[in-house]
Design brief:
By secondary structure, the protein is of the alpha/beta class. The protein folds into three domains: about 160 residues, 3-Layer(aba) Sandwich (Rossmann fold), CATH 3.40.50; about 120 residues, Nitrogenase molybdenum iron protein domain (Rossmann fold), CATH 3.40.50.1980; about 100 residues, Rossmann fold. About 45% of the residues lie in helices and about 15% in strands. The protein has 16 helices and 15 strands. The strands form three sheets. A seven-stranded mixed β-sheet has the order 1-2-13-12-11-14-15, sandwiched between helices. Helix 6 runs parallel beside helix 8. The longest helix has 26 residues. The structure holds iron/sulfur cluster (SF4).
Length: about 425
């Protein structure tokens, strides 16, 4: 878990009058680091291996977050680099090379190896991008070796996915100039969700659709000026920037959470491809209808309940928008580690100017505000959940929302149920 201790709070007047007021904070944070992303990234890219270069703490974090795989060969490990001074760096590089040699000899199924940096000072001194180049020269083309940082010095745990995907972008082939335009969906999605979206895009007539990351590393999609991309996750600032540098264009859209978000997200692609309104309605109507019917039950349980978000996953704004507009919950405060104004523009417009946002964290001040507000539910990191539960509050772990398939029409009710369940459980405990 990472903490930062710069103090300070400011309440910013909104730049645009329709934008909500934002409390900006820089104080102690309670968030997991980017290594956590390995948990879902290694499941998605099925021939990739994540070698954390870190300390025993990093090894414990990854092992306990990802669990022990009993039946399968694991696809993550930690090379422990500790207690080195600068004079020991040559040894550390040689040791890293030996670890990679042994790993790739034993595991010929690995096609993509990520060297994942961490925050201990011994590791920061190591130049992992140079190590990746050095090792790539030896193992290419059988194995591609890339590096990124999962360090806890960054904003929060979802930045690990952003750093990983941004590291993949330079390895994507260049799209031939004469190729028709293509759509790239960016961000880890569960396979079941990816398949649903693929079918919906095909029904809309948007045929050339790729996903980043791909399920196999050899299927890295091409990118170029003919690529339009849709972000599937709100925490991919670096990846988006890297794609734009390759000539790709982002399609502004809300995120595909809930009926409204999914429809807006699909519509952004449909509009860019000139799909007519009747076809769009015909393709989306069954999903919208199914989702609305399924949302009726959780809505009954959640409507009118007040919800408070601590900044953790960067999913907070789209989640609050969904819960407020489709379920009738009342967001008391919506905290996010970082608000990317451009990527969240559609979300903030839907959320409206009356919702209190906070950006960054000063955990003690936010705890004070949360206790004063006494919300019906608190969405927060694991480290805050138990103490708040002990104070009688109902909590939801934000990290669970990153692990679970929540995007698209057919997952909207499952997402709402994730919020309903802890409230129902507490009601039963109290009764
Ligand atoms: S990267 Fe840093 S914050 Fe993350 S587990 Fe390792 S030491 Fe802890």
């Amino acid at each position: 878990m990472s903490t930062a201790t710069t103090q300070g709070t400011s309440v910013g007047a909104a730049a645009a009058c329709a934008e909500p007021r934002v409390i900006r904070e820089r104080g102690q944070r309670e968030v997991f680091c980017g290594l956590t992303g390995i948990v879902w990234l290694h499941r998605k890219i099925q021939d990739a291996f994540f070698l954390v270069v870190g300390s025993r703490t990093c090894a414990h974090l990854v092992q306990s977050a990802a669990g022990v795989m009993i039946f399968a060969e694991p696809r993550f490990a930690t090379a422990i680099i500790e207690d080195r001074d600068l004079a020991g760096l040559a040894d550390a590089n040689a040791e890293l090379d030996r670890v990679v040699d042994r790993l790739l000899e034993r595991r010929p199924d690995i096609r993509l190896l990520f060297l994942v940096g961490s925050c201990p000072s011994e590791v920061i001194k190591l130049d992992l991008s140079r190590a990746a180049q050095r090792l790539s020269a030896r193992f290419a083309p059988q194995v591609r070796i890339l590096n990124y940082s999962g360090s806890g010095i960054e904003t929060t745990f979802t930045q690990g996915e952003d750093a990983c995907l941004a590291a993949l972008v330079p390895a994507m082939p260049a799209a031939p100039a004469l190729l028709p335009r293509s759509l790239l969906v960016v961000g880890c999605l569960a396979d079941v969700v990816e398949d649903q979206f693929r079918r919906q895009f095909a029904a809309l007539g948007v045929d050339a659709v790729d996903f980043l990351p791909p399920r196999r590393s050899g299927a890295l999609p091409a990118v170029g000026p003919g690529t339009s991309f849709l972000l599937a996750q709100p925490f991919l600032a670096e990846t988006a920037r890297a794609l734009e540098e390759r000539g790709a264009t982002r399609l502004p859209a809300p995120f595909p959470i809930g009926v409204e978000g999914t429809t807006g997200w699909l519509r952004a692609a449909a509009d860019a491809w000139g799909v007519d309104a009747a076809r769009f309605a015909a393709v989306t109507a069954p999903g919208i209808e199914r989702a609305r019917r399924a949302l009726a039950r959780p809505r009954e349980q959640l409507e009118g309940k007040r919800i408070f978000f601590f900044p953790d996953s960067q999913l907070e704004v789209p989640l609050a928008r969904f819960l407020a507009r489709e379920i009738g919950m009342v967001p008391v405060e919506v905290g996010s580690p970082y608000l990317h104004r451009a990527h969240l523009a559609a979300e903030l417009a839907l959320l409206g100017p009356d919702v209190q946002l906070s950006e960054g964290q000063d955990v003690e001040r936010q705890l004070d505000r949360c206790r004063a507000a006494r919300p019906d539910m608190v969405v927060c990191g694991l480290g805050l959940a138990n103490p708040l539960e002990a104070e009688g509050m109902t909590t939801k772990w934000s990290i669970e929302l990153v692990f679970t398939p929540i995007q698209g029409y057919d997952q909207a009710a499952d997402l709402a149920e994730l919020f309903a369940r802890p409230l129902v459980r507490r009601t039963r405990l109290v009764a």
